[in-house]
Design brief:
Radius of gyration: 13 Å
Distance between the termini: 38 Å
Number of helices: 3
Strand content: 15-25%
CATH architecture: 2-Layer Sandwich
Number of domains: 1
CATH superfamily: AP2/ERF domain
Order of helices and strands: HEEEHH
Oligomer: single chain
Amino acid sequence: MSDKDYYLSQATRPLKKDAFSKYRGVSKGTATHPYRAALGYKGRRYHLGTFETELEAAKAYNKAALRIIGDYAVINEIPEEHESK
């Protein structure tokens, strides 16, 4: 199985029902920055930082996924009204 096939098999799984966030790669952070973004790829874990909003964390995940994984990265769908912010 190629790296691309393995990544896509993991990344396209549905999110858990009891997940903290509705966005891929976003989880519970700290009291001062409630959202954390992280990305796992090729056996490495990339910690992308902590954020004050869920959307900031999701955008950080999207940016890192495109940079690290490339064209076949599975990214979060950000609503249009939040796209430019």
